[in-house]
Amino acid sequence: MRRAARSFPGVPERPVRRLVLAQFASGVGRFMVLAAMPFAIFSIGGSTAQIGIALACEAGVYVAFLLVGGVAGDRLPRRSVLIAADLLRFAAQGGVALLLILGDAAFWQLVAAQAASGLGAAFFAPTMTGFVREVASRERLQQANGLRRMSDAAAAVAGPALAAVAVAGAGPGWAFGADALSYLLSAALLLGVRSRAGVAAAETRDEESFSMLAGIREGWTEFQSRTWLWAVVVEFAVLNALVVAPFFVLGPGMADGAVGGASGWAIVLCALAAGEATGGIVGLGWTPARPLVAASLAVTLWATPLLALAALAPMPFVAAAAVLGGAGLALFGVLWETTLQGHVPAQRLSRVMSYEELGSSGVLPVGYVVGGVAMGVLGPSTALFGGVAVLLVATVSVLAVPSVRALRPAGS
Q: Which of 93, 191, 286, 297 is most buried by a 10 A CB count?
């Protein structure tokens, strides 16, 4: 039975399973912080504005250090970078937990912990993509990415739920304590993950130069040399700023009229997570001949929740549409990361991923502002219909790029 399980196509290698579990544990911690932070700030007499400051500080540090994290992921042993990032976040959130439990926490300490968490995430995110390539065989690489998407979706549900239970049952300090332990668990799991024999030494170390600035420049050269790569990143910068982020701003404001208030909106968000898990499952075994064409078309499924919410459809229809939208985004992610891992040299993959993340997701704060402005200027329904138009134009534009259409799976 054990030999059969190892040979079955849907079951990845044992190191990949440990890696996915580590990412799940780390993701649970990340989402627990998002849920528990407001209550921690309120417990020390803070305000809603201070919640925004703390979260903005984490996001700002994350963006500021992404490129540095990418260089570290290419120049240093990736497993060590990941473990160090988890231990940093364990120490930061564990310290806050202790201060909250003892009643000695101050706002600046919470902000410092968020900054440390952002720093850890900036090193963890680009390094993980490169480490997956070291651990998974080429035949199981897409399966590994599919499982990672499923773990992210599960963490998005489990993290806030665990935080809510901890806050309600014992207080925000204990929620931060559980959050800290999730990072420690991730580090312990990663400690047992080994790269495939010879891969880290033979494929993943770039010895052209050793300075940080030179490493960042080399990453930029690799990034901009591939038209298909930066074309998709530009597409997602537009989509995140004008389509995805505004949805999460406009959606809660329309919840009372469309999906039944806060509880209905929570169901929609859970449906998005369920869709992301579904997209991960599809990505386990589907290898299209033109991966970027398939990935770009999958993204158009995000139009379904936009249209359902804009039309003020009943909550079950909005939730069903959210499942489709989440599945499309997750399937894009699986195909996209597998394409990058197959076509970008391993010794520069983490740096390319840092540029990819900076370009596509660095605009999210702008998108949140755009959503608020659109709400007042256009009205929520018109703004959402406009988002659908932007999505379709962006998809057609990126599919017009010859290298996007021509790209084949690595090794084909």
A: 93
Residues near 411 by beta carbon (within 8 Å), at least 6 away in sequence: 138, 342
CB-based burial, 145-172: b 16+ in 10 Å, e otherwise:
bbbbbbbbbbbbbbbbebbeebbeeebb
**Token couple for 339:** 């394409």
Average pLDDT (344-366) is 84
Phi, psi (deg, nearest 5) at residue 168:
-70, -35
* Helix or strand run (H / E) with residue 388: helix 380-399
| pLDDT attached to residue 367 | 66
What DSSP string describes 145-159?
A: HHHHHHHHHHHHHHH
pTM: 0.78
8 Å CB contact between 347 and 205:
yes
The CA distance from 412 to 398, in Å, is 22
pLDDT in tens, 219-233: 889 898 999 999 999
Task: Name residue 250's amino acid.
Answer: L
